[in-house]
Amino acid sequence: MVELIKSNVNIDFLGKSKFFFGISAALVMLSLFLIFTKGFNYGIDFAGGTVVQVKFENTPDLDKLRNSFKDLNLGEMVIQTFGEPNDILIRVEKTSAGLKETANAIQTKIKEVSGEQKIVIERVEQVGPQVGGQLKNKAIMATIYSLIGILIYVSLRFEFIFSVGAVLALFHDVIITLGIFSLLGKEITLPIVAAVLTIVGYSLNDTIVVFDRIRERIKNSAGKLNLYEVMNKSINETLSRTILTSGTTLLAVLALYLFGGEVINGFSFALLIGIVVGTYSSIGVASALVYKIKKTK
Amino acid sequence: MKYKFRWATIAAIVIAALIMMFPLKEKIKLGLDLQGGMHVVLGVETEKAVDGKLDTIVTQLKKELKNADIKYSFAQKTKDGKIKLGFQETALTDKARDLITKNYPYLVDSSLSNDPEILVFSLDQKEYDKVKDYAVEQAVQVIRNRIDQFGVSEPVIQRQGKNEILVQLPGITDPDRAIDLIGKTAQLRFHIVDENVSTQDAINGNLPFDDVLLYSKEYDKVTGKLQQEVPYVLKREAVLTGEYLTDAEVRISSQFNEPYVLIKFDSAGSKLFDQITAENVNKRLAIVLDNNVYSAPVIRERISGGEAQISGNFTMDEAKDLAIVLRAGSLPAPVVVLENRTVGPSLGFDSITKGVKAAVIGFIAVMIFILFYYRVSGVIANIALLLNFVLILGVMSAFGATLTLPGIAGIILTIGMSVDANVLIFERIREELRIGRTPLNAIEAGYEKAMSTILDANITTLIAALVLFQFGTGPIKGFAVTLSIGILSSMFTAIFVTRTIFMTFFGGKDTKNLSI
Q1: Taking CB atoms and an 8 Å limit, are A190 and B372 in contact across chains?
Q2: How does pLDDT run across B189-231, given as a tens digit for each residue?
Q3: What are phi and psi of B437, to 5 degrees?
Q4: Predicted local confidence at residue A172, as pLDDT
Q5: How many CB pairs under 8 A join A and B?
Q6: Which of A71, B42, B64, B220 could, after both became Cys, cross-link B335 (CB 3.0–4.6 A)?
Q7: Given an 8 Å threshold on Cβ–Cβ distance, is A256 in contact with B475?
Q8: What stretch of H or E contains A77?
């Protein structure tokens, strides 16, 4: 039998809860600090604006390109490579000009700059300011709805306190993931929101497996073990499953991150972080939270 | 064979999935992000439609007052969206009021009582809403007509919310042209050129009240840059509009070998055109589309027969598109682009290639890992994994679901997660074996005990997926769909299929060693 985790493993996870809480609290605080001070690099989905992706035949000179775009007066503008050196991404913040005019101006300029070279406009994405606001509201509502749905389901299947622990752990995962996005200045787009919601589902998946085992143990060992021991034993018993499943998911998502291409890069990156953070919180934080809440009651 | 029924079920489902799937290229619809195409959300400026309605009412009112022999000193639309009429005597005011309240039940009298010679009317709320609503409905129709004539397979043209229109055009190769075609208001008007006012005066701001200054704009055909603007002073009131059009088609002029658009009027329009040309011989008639002068030929003689030409240095495509918009009719109000996402076909193709590559690599990596970890039982789990993949594609084909790039990511994620059910079961079986149970008993206990955990774990993920489906658009919806399908089908393969294999393998006897 191949074993990643020895079957007789017996780690005192709850005993280390001070340590885990310390790390988690620090990470959450740091993330919140970053989110509120540095904020997010909102993609055009939420901020509004225009993105044009162009494939040039030969690698263009970025500085020259930037200079030639200056006289368009389109305000804040970012020109960078996107994956390949001849793939250029032009991003314009929202301007007073209409979306159609902005796109036309950029495309005309590109044709002018490229001269004899062949160019292909690979992608144009434009979101007006109103739509951006709507999308932002929808994203926030979606996150809240899914958390409420999960809260209800978990309280129906387990004790209410468990659902509190689970949802707190989810907030923990989401905040840290967003904190890392803020730290690295990665773009927040609609797919990132989808990734975050998936993380919510996934991380909960791990937590539920542990809770399930705790519930079963409580039922079977009435009186023999105290809650502390039951919880520790349950986390240990499910540890190899938790690590295994996270491992296979991580393998699959890693393939997506490495080979899935630039368009989906941010999305797979969010999933990667989320899986790592979610696995950690399922093992180290969720049950410990439930234990703490139960004890103080 | 003991488990005939189970095997038959599995065979039936897999065969059904395979039948649904093939030919894969036709069955799986690709999202705009994978096949290339454009997704545009247009906002209809419904206020302008109300404005236009007020203009029409004013014109009608003037005619009716004239017919009823009620002299007015002015009749106009005000800036705040009302109709204002002025009269010399109070008696005339009263007569006009009677006429208007009788013929226009949707106009609300909002005149000020302290000024008996002035009447003010406004649209009632119901009519106001109706005009706005109708403008959006009509815009959807017009855009649909244009797209139909332009020729795009499987377009989506849908009203969205109060005054938005969603247009999705898969596989479009010239998005600029498409957006011009959809977005053109295409309001065609004919105005007499006012030769008494010099254009220079007009540019300097000396423009009589009943004139307008419009330009003819010429663009360079290669760079699309504005080359020159020629100013025209026109009589404000249009003598004829596009309403009377019945047809528009592209012709090639024999003289210059250039395309032009031939338009045909209906009988009323023909009569009007005949009359206008008769009255204005040797004057210039400007053809104006969306406030842009196309041409202003001199009327040499009275033109009967109800045909006119629009020429203007067109390329063939431009002439074709102009004919389309004229045939399909004008938008009742201008539209603005609120959102535009266009993906070129090459990027879409690139995305599929990379997505599939990532999926294959992820798949193989997971399978190797499971095989190494669980040995013979790992083979069983891998069979379930493969079947799961077939089922996902089968179900997607059956429901006509759309595969998007995030959708491919959903499948990849499902591959990683779907082994979870097997991992849960197998780890349980190992536990049971450790406490000394026989393989057969261990398997049974493993499945039974893991069941509620699997259900709980999957339902929670499903909740998140359903929320995503509910709020998501396009690609994200695609992700939610594949994720949900993946979760459901993995429960079938990882629980039912693997168990059937185990049962057949042991055949109810408890002799063999279990490789797990």
Answers
A1: no
A2: 899 999 888 888 888 888 887 888 999 887 766 555 677 888 9
A3: -75, 160
A4: 94
A5: 245
A6: B42
A7: no
A8: strand A77-82
The per-residue pLDDT for range A132-188, each reduced to its tens digit, is 888 888 888 888 888 888 888 888 888 888 888 998 999 999 999 999 999 999 989
Q: Do B33 and A263 touch (CB under 8 A)?
A: yes
Minimum CA–CA partner of A51 in chain B: B341
DSSP state letters, B439-506: HHHHHHHHHHHHHHHHHHHHHHHHHHHHHHHHH--HHHHHHHHHHHHHHHHHHIIIIIIHHHHHHHHH
The two most distant CA atoms of chain A are separated, in Å, by: 83
Q: What is the token pair recorded at A14?
A: 């709850």
Cα B192 to its chain centre, rounded Å, is 38
Say what the ipTM of the complex is: 0.88
The pLDDT score that the predictor gives to residue A272 is: 94
Beta bridge partner(s), residue B121: B83, B109
Positive/negative CA dihedral, B80, B85, B88, B94: negative
The Cα of A112 is separated from the nearest Cα of chain B by a number of Å equal to 7
d(CA A142, CA B472): 9
Phi, psi of B107 (to 5 degrees): -95, 130
CB contact under 8 A, A249 and B413: yes
The tokens describing A294, both together, are 């139960």
User: Which one of A7, A122, A212 has the shortest CB-CB distance to B344?
Assistant: A122
What's the whole-number mean pLDDT along residues B14-40?
A: 86
φ, ψ (nearest 5 deg) of residue B26: -85, -30
Give B48-65 as a 3 state SS string.
HHHHHHHHHHHHHHHHHH
Q: List the beta bridge partners of residue A51.
A: A91, A125
pTM: 0.83
pLDDT of residue A223: 66
CB contact set of B12 (below 8 Å; sequence gap of 6+): none
Alpha helices in B30-122 (DSSP H): 32-35, 46-67, 90-103
Q: Where are the alpha helices (DSSP H) in B151-266?
A: 175-183, 199-203
Q: How far apart are CA A55 and CA A82, in angstroms?
A: 9
Distance (Å) from the alpha carbon of B249 to chain A's nearest alpha carbon: 27
A99·B452 Cβ contact <8 A: no
Q: Which of A96-105, B120-129, B445-454, B474-483 has the lowest mean pLDDT?
A: A96-105
The answer to whether the CB atoms of B342 and A123 lie below 8 A apart is yes
Question: How far is it, in rounded angstroms, from Cα B223 to Cα B220?
Answer: 6
Q: Which pLDDT band holds residue B166 (cuts at 50, 70, 90)?
A: very high
CA distance B231 to B221: 21
A140: left (phi over 0), alpha (psi -120 to 50) or beta: alpha
Distance between CA atoms of A241 and A246, rounded to whole angstroms?
8
**Residue B333 φ then ψ, to 5°:** -155, 150
- Asked whether the predicted pLDDT for residue B153 surpasses 90, the reply is no
Task: Identify the DSSP state of A88.
Answer: E
**Beta-carbon-side half-sphere exposure of residue A107 (alpha carbons within 13 Å):** 21
The single-letter DSSP state of residue B81 is: S
- CA pair distance A152, A166, nearest whole angstrom: 11
Contacts of B357 in chain A (CB under 8 A): 259
- pLDDT recorded at residue B316: 86
Residues in CB range of B392: below 8 A, 6 or more apart: B411, B414, B482, B485, B486, B489
Check CB contact of A248 with chain B, cutoff 8 Å.
Answer: yes
Owner of token pair 């011989």: B281
Asked whether the CA dihedral A123, A129, A130, A133 is positive or negative, the reply is: positive
Q: Which three-class secondary structure state does DSSP give residue B75? A: strand
Tell me the shortest Cα–Cα distance from B510 to chain A, in angstroms.
20
